[in-house]
Amino acid sequence: MLSAQCTDKVVNRVTEKLFKKYKTPADFAKAKSAVFQKEISSIPFFRNKTNAILGTAKIIDDDFGGAVPKSEKELVTLPGIGYKTAHVVLGELYDLWEGIATDTHVRRFALRFDLTDNRDLTKISKDLEELVPKKDWKYVNNGLVLYGRYLCPARKHDCENHPLTKIWPQAAARWPKAK
């Protein structure tokens, strides 16, 4: 929830302190909103994220016995959890890769390599799930995020010699708009 519209570097810095103080959903559920807001104030949208995180923790503690749900259907009922976050949680926490988590990075590459005509992240996920064998779903999000971070950033540049562009050269001329 903290990662939306925020860099990994900032999230990692904030969570390092948070996870020393809050160890269980019950710990988060008992947190004082004003204190928690201050603790995550360097994160964009910290007020909304405070409400989502503390609300989700309370529901997990009260309705799920303190255990993070193990299904997309249950996860998306929680505040601040949509298709992408549900599948990141299922994959990273339980090694259940039941969907492809699509974020802005995956969207950019899906459009750039003509893997979808959709702009909606969940629809892009569904398109990719049709194209990519299920055994490989767990590699799509992190693989494309890392590819974008280290090889092919979002800003325009010469990417003619990048590994994926060598496979599909038309991508070198495709620069999808941010929205």
Provide keyphrases for this structure.
single chain; 179 residues; mainly alpha; Endonuclease III, domain 1; 2 domains; 10 helices; globular
Report the principal-axis shape: globular
* Beta-strand content bin: under 5%
Query: From the alpha-carbon coordinates, what is the Rg to the nearest angstrom?
Result: 18 Å
Fourth-level CATH superfamily of the largest domain: Hypothetical protein, domain 2
Word description of this protein:
- The protein is 55% helix and 0% strand.
- Helix 3 packs across helix 4.
- By secondary structure, it is an all-alpha fold.
- It is built from 10 helices and no strands.
- The model has no long low-confidence stretch (mean pLDDT 94).
- It folds into 2 domains: 75 residues, Hypothetical protein, domain 2 (Endonuclease III, domain 1); 70 residues, no CATH class.
